[in-house]
Amino acid sequence: MIHTASTVTTDKNSSLIFGSRLQFQDVGGRNVIPMASRWRPPDQGSYKLNMGFSVDSCLSLAGVGFLVQDADGTVRAAMKQRMVLCDDKLQFQATVVLAATVVLAAVKFAFDVGFRSLDVDMSYSELYHLLQSEDPCLAFIGSLVDDILLIKNSCNDCKFSLIKSSCNKASFSLDYRALSSATSQVWFDHCPVNISSHVLFDSS
């Protein structure tokens, strides 16, 4: 199994780990599902859900961002928030747990604000395979997988898709900005001004 993550060091005291760019590729024993190379709108009547997270390992903080768009690409809901992490959540295995935690928080947000037909994009291959499996999840993130599937099964329709992180600039920008703000923000039927150009780029 190959694990990659991009890291940007801003100065000697601050290292930003872009967990939203964390990707997993399985080789041997499992089919590799190709990731979509561009953002695609959902079917009419459904809503596309994208999410991302960034981690500042020096400050033990994570910024998360969620974005819900309709078939026209219009932003119907968005959220950004900052999370405080324990030291053990900065290890690689715990970063996988964080990825599952972010996906769970994203689908719960979308469900709680009323969206029941979801097309969920993610860049986490390992988590994607666990969500697609019909077997009980015995992995260390099994309880998180079960909680995600519980919300999925409560929706009228919910499916998961793999997408390259480069096609998800809008939610990446949102989660990065969340790192610098202690206040959570939610938008309904309004695109946050500071990510509008990224929304247009992703959907172009």
Automatic annotation (TrEMBL):
Transmembrane segments: none annotated. It comes from the Eukaryota. One of its GO terms (molecular function) is nucleic acid binding. Residues 61-171 form the RNase H type-1 domain. This is RNase H type-1 domain-containing protein.
